[in-house]
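Q: What would this complex look like in 3D?
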Amino acid sequence: MSYFSFEVLHASKKSQARVGRIHTPHGIIDTPNFVAVGTNGTLKALDNVQVNKLGLQLMFCNTYHLLVHPGTDVIKSAGGLHTYINRPYPIITDSGGFQVFSLAYGTVKEELKSKGLNRHAEAVIKISEEGVLFRSYRDGSPILLTPESSIQAQKALGADIIIPFDELPPYHIDPKKLKQSLDRTHRWEERSLMEHRKDPQQQAIYAVVHGGIDKALRTLSCQVLSNLPFDGYAIGGSVGKNRQEMVEMLAHTVPQLPKNLPNHLLGIADLPSIDEIVKLGIDTFDSSYPTRSARHGSVFVSNGQQLKLLQTKYKDFHEPIERTCECYTCLNYTVSYIHHLYKAKELAGLTLATLHNVHFMVQLMKNYQEAILNDEL
Amino acid sequence: MSYFSFEVLHASKKSQARVGRIHTPHGIIDTPNFVAVGTNGTLKALDNVQVNKLGLQLMFCNTYHLLVHPGTDVIKSAGGLHTYINRPYPIITDSGGFQVFSLAYGTVKEELKSKGLNRHAEAVIKISEEGVLFRSYRDGSPILLTPESSIQAQKALGADIIIPFDELPPYHIDPKKLKQSLDRTHRWEERSLMEHRKDPQQQAIYAVVHGGIDKALRTLSCQVLSNLPFDGYAIGGSVGKNRQEMVEMLAHTVPQLPKNLPNHLLGIADLPSIDEIVKLGIDTFDSSYPTRSARHGSVFVSNGQQLKLLQTKYKDFHEPIERTCECYTCLNYTVSYIHHLYKAKELAGLTLATLHNVHFMVQLMKNYQEAILNDEL
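A: Here is my prediction, written as structure tokens for the whole assembly.
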């Protein structure tokens, strides 16, 4: 499989952190690295030419959203997702399962806030061994998502890395039901892998390790999935209700993954967590946190803090967000002006803040790679 | 006054159309030309580096909005509007009067739709010979706008071209009241001019000819204001309830303006009107129509039509908006993708459509200039 490979360049002497390089048909992903989320085929408030210039090496797109609109047939007829969205660099898509089950169960955060069942719960019509039947949030039409149809959708999209269909069980779940869910997820993942291998199309497929916060089940999941010829290993499902639980779970799980293959942590990239997960040996991780923070007026600065653009004290702060930052926003605009754009509800504010945060993440990960190469982390 | 000048390069043999060049401290404005509206110091959905690249030669900013936020003191402390918003090219600001009186009377369009008094009518506390006292829509604080304070605000902003304080009377107005309003506007404009001339600061000031749809009053306004040493002449107030009334009014008014000075038509730039106003000898004209149309999913194409991006037929139209267009959007994205961005409510769609429409206007005006130089218009 020459179109996809992974090499570990250096393992830190101080932690499990490692520097590596993933080779894909659309270029290299240096690891550890942040993966930005472009749900609908674009990072919110940016267009892809802007993103391409930022040096972001991997973008995460959501199959579920692209299935609902414009539909995978449209994207296939355009020549695939890379052409459709004008991104010549690596893309990863998920299976659609996460969104479908988020609709059914809500997110862990919603659960912990006791919001109960998500208001979209009625969107899921039926979950069976076959897969999940749900209603499109756009027009109410029924969509059947199975391991096979998810893979076929991801083949139509043509991302460099795809993900098998899995179930996202709720955080609060009866242990017996969690085991049943895990077993079914393993069967679904194997079906996904089989479907993929009929015609790999230069795509790599990552397994998704599940088991919630049950260590024995995480071990079982690593064992079952390691025996299957996946190209990499993602860690999914609930990894805990707080950072401490997450760290414990990852410290337990990561060492049980094949060391010669890349791993990916699904859905986590807040700044305090990055420090932890990189040290635990995570290669890539995705989250909409940096882009969502930007839209809420929160921009990252290099002391690990966030500057809240809407605060009145920034009204006449005629300096860039950071003097040393070389992003488009900092080279061209002051905090005072961006503050004004937010206050005046001008969309340009969202774009400028997002450009800064994504640039920040790209630079941050270069710094992490450097620190690991120097055994400083 | 070496910092501002106007030269007529060619007068068409077929119409009143003319090609000219306005020299300002921040560069040249070729005429006839479209002036895009950047109310809050930015074209909606774009940032100014993007606008600078589009070749837009003049941007219109609204003193009223900038007074309310961030305040002219903030912009002055940044070094003026050009620095604050990062636009090294010419800027024109209005007096704030238009917005204040729109609050009081509503727009002509609202009036014609019988919406009656605008819902913000209570924002205007008092209109007197002195000026207008109104409440900030942001925080309710009282703001007094007078000819002198409007000019001082525009001096703090530092645009290349400024506009005297005037009253915008409603379309349906008693002839006697219209005459009273006109007389007061003339007094306000003269006070504005006097205030400006105390310290010109390399700014040019355009008079605003009023008189509504009363030809005699338009003639009077041209006479009164032509006798004052303004640097250019804008045409403001109601110029009619439809295109025919507007054409009649401009055909009557434009010939009465000083021919050696630039003129400007306030607030009109829909495509069908441009053809008419250019032939009547208008040099510059502003409108938010091209940018607002873009945000509503309407993009301009060279046959004079508009392509409605939200129409389902564009779902799988894998071509740029126009094959021959060389804008950022057409060089990088297809209609299908932009359609998808609109359907998915991604802000990037608004940005891409706006970039196209502004580029279209810049090219359109180059074509008009060329046609006039060749006596084809």
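A: To summarize the key features: DSSP finds 15 helices and 16 strands in chain A. The interface with chain B takes residues 40-42, 44-49, 65, 69-71, 73-74, 77-79, 84-86, 315-316, 318, 328, 332-334, 336-337, 339-341, 343-344, 346-348, 350-352 of chain A (CB under 8 Å).
Q: Very helpful, thank you.
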